[in-house]
Design a protein that fits this description.
There is one protein chain. The protein is of the alpha+beta class and 190 residues long. It has one domain. It has 3 helices and 4 strands. It has a 4-stranded antiparallel β-sheet with strand order 1-2-3-4. The longest helix is centred in the N-terminal third of the chain and has 28 residues. It is elongated. The N and C termini lie far apart (111 Å).
């Protein structure tokens, strides 16, 4: 009787080995799936941070531009208290004729918040404020909209602007949209 018990406890049966292999296979498969998901998700924060940096830098650049009644090239830019006092009154969108259109990269440069409405850049054409190209951004596109928003603050609609900068990464579909307000500066306003 003793010899039968010792023979039985000396090894594993075929069924026990098969069950062990199945359980081990399920565990390894689960680990591989989890590792794959973590690896693919680890790229998303990098893409999101880059899109956020692009949107943030362009929004800051735009918010630092003038927002007055007159075009900043107008002689009355610092004295005009209303659009009627300007030779060239500002309006949303680039307001110079196409022969002398302002751009972000070449003289004459964008000089007013309004000028950026409808501005966009993508991939290899993404440049810094100094005009130099920024490498490694081929999958990104950036667009800007500027809209009257004074009513949001109980003002006349044209007294404040809502600036929206949207960056999209084509490969992942990641979209970052930042908004900022710019209020009109008019030292002699009534």
């Amino acid at each position: 009787m003793c010899s039968a018990t010792s023979r039985r406890s000396a090894g594993m049966s075929l069924i026990e080995v098969v069950v062990f292999i199945v359980v081990l296979g399920i565990g390894i498969a689960g680990t591989v799936i989890l590792f794959n998901q973590l690896t693919s998700a680890s790229v998303d924060p990098l893409v999101r941070k880059q899109a956020l940096a692009l949107s943030n830098s362009l929004l800051e650049e735009i918010e630092l531009r003038a927002f007055t009644y007159c075009d900043p090239d107008d002689a009355a830019v610092f004295t005009a208290g209303n659009p009627g006092a300007c030779t060239t009154a500002e309006s949303i969108g680039p307001n110079e004729p196409s022969a002398n259109a302002e751009t972000r990269y070449a003289v004459p440069l964008f000089d007013n918040v309004n000028d950026y409405d409808g501005f966009s850049m993508a991939g290899a054409s993404i440049r810094g404020a100094d005009g130099s190209t920024v490498g490694g951004l081929n999958g990104y596109s950036v667009s800007v909209t500027v809209a009257n928003a004074g009513a949001d603050f109980g003002l006349a609609a044209a007294e404040a602007l809502l600036i929206t900068v949207t960056t999209v990464h084509a490969g992942t579909g990641t979209t970052v949209s930042l908004q900022g307000y710019r209020f009109r500066y008019a030292p002699n306003s009534p």
